[in-house]
Amino acid sequence: MVAEKNQKKYRHTTIRNELGLHARSAAQIAGIAQNSNANVWIQKDDQKADASSILDILTLACTKGTKITIIIEDPADVQILKAIVDLVDSGFGEK
Amino acid sequence: MSESVAQENRLKGIGASPGICIGKAYLVDKEGVDVVEKYTIKDEQLQGEIKRFKAAVKKARDEFQTIIKNRPEELQRDYILETHIALLDDKMLYGKTIETIQTEGVNAEWALKKIVSILKATFEKMGDEYLKERASDVVHVSDAIMRNLVGVASKNIAAIDKRVILVAYDLSPADTSQINLARIKGFITNRGGKASHTGILAQALEIPAVVGLETATIAIKSDDLIIVDGNTGTVIIDPSEQTLFEYEERKNGYEEYKAVITRESHLRAETTDGRQLEVMANIEFPEEVISVKNYGGDGIGLYRTEFQYMNRLEFPDEAELFEKYHEVVELMTPKPVTIRTLDINGDKAIANRSGLDEANPALGLRAIRYCLRKPDVFKTQLRAILRAAAFGNVRILFPMISAYYEICEAIRALDEAAESLEKDGLPYTREIEIGIMIEVPSAVILADLLADKADFFSIGTNDLIQYALAIDRGNRNVAHLYQPLDPAVLRLIKRVADVSREKEIEVFICGEMAATARHIPLLLGLGMDELSMNPQSMPRAKRVIRSLSVSDARSFAREALKIKTARGVFEMTQAAYGDIIAELEYH
Fold this sequence. Notes:
heterodimer; A: Histidine-containing Protein, Chain: A; four-stranded antiparallel beta sheet; about 35% helix; B: Glucose Oxidase, domain 1; Enzyme I, Chain A, domain 2; TIM Barrel; eight-stranded mixed beta sheet; eight-stranded parallel beta barrel
């Protein structure tokens, strides 16, 4: 229980791949988020998108350098949170 | 009563691929599913309605998967269809449609239509071009679901069993990858321009195409008898006896003449006084090598490499580029293949990021400027070219050079690519000729400096004329001022030719000007070593060259350079070579 309390339910990161959150990178995020227990959100400024929807992610129009926050609702989804942040940080495997 | 007389109907569009064909129309109708009825669903039937929707989605997914499985090898790396499959069960589309069926108690078709129009509007109002385009992905996906909902069997263009003229609103790559192309006589589309997917495909297949007709799918019905004239961009529906007769004649004349000049196209293009000119081809796809060979090309003077960077989600990798270049080089060997490096803004082609909006792209970050800014993208292409060069005769051509340092940096990048290949132990050769595309006036002025860095110049007349005369050909108000025979243009070409002779490098021309029979005497007289053009124009160009003598052409060019207006040069050409030109342009 203590561990859960200390778990942050959001993390900040920055889009670093050249193409930004385009259809393929969005599809990769959605693929991960679809395994969550509860909602997973991507926030950019005051706009929020459902991370399990490619279309919703695209509407955020995140280009390279955009700062985003990934938010989970259920602490049990912390691995999902980590996986998405890692994916963004890896630049989606783009060269 | 006058109605009983068959009324022929003429539509005017853009000729995207030359030739004439006469035949039955085959309409690929996407409009049919646009009319959607709305009706309410009783509570107890809602689950059934949702089930019906889910089944339609599943069918659409199966269809996409079948297309993916059967698509030709060269399209295997096209991820558009995979993205479409992922969109099929996207919450915003799939989830919201089910929600709408439930909360509003409406039929699935109506719910889907409603959600799609909301999504479409959301994407279309976005500032970013790439994202705007995603609206069409949503529409493609929902069309596929809708077809299965309304039960209209999607017209299976894969099953066309007679030779027809395909009429469509627009043809997507997914559509065309399913067509048995041998069955198609010609293409007609409402949308598209000269460089549209349909046009490029038709040119490669050497069948006529007219695009940008706007109302073709409304005016034409399946099985209508139509004439497609890709030379003039005309489509005639229900032609009269007389029109039909006239076009049969024209078609036969065109084909006979084409056959005659094609037969002799394998012979060298040698002037009456024994000077040989290389007649080369401009191509974009490996498939075009067949036409290059059929039409007797002496090599490839311009291999455009942009297509692999367009309409996709990420840059092509080295392996993919190498594969395409290698294919062309190997098929053409020992004849030369001139590969031009990327001539667009790659970011725009791929992702169109809003940060890169340019008010004036023709003067913006493109071609060599873009490549030098993106060393990784450039290096990938340079490595692929050097590797392909190990398999034949490759020349590299750098586009849009406008300053001395640019060619120096481009060559340095080429050297670095060679070094990295050496390190990786991959087969390659650095022993290739380096060419500079002369298409910016500053390059003409600096030609003497640039010549020290190059083995050849290739004059790209389309852009050179546009930049020199400050004319945008796409602008109706000034398009008529775009004059290849403008004295300013002739002087620019002459300077490049003179510098080349002095510096002992070769000089080629690869713009549309080279493909125009009327301009060939002048180009020969100015001292061009090679003319490069679309493959279909090569037999004609060779025929012109065979009827000319260099010494006459030289004195003609000398006189032409004294003329003060484009009109004057035109008239002089007409007086000196009118008979030769007439024979060629009549057809």
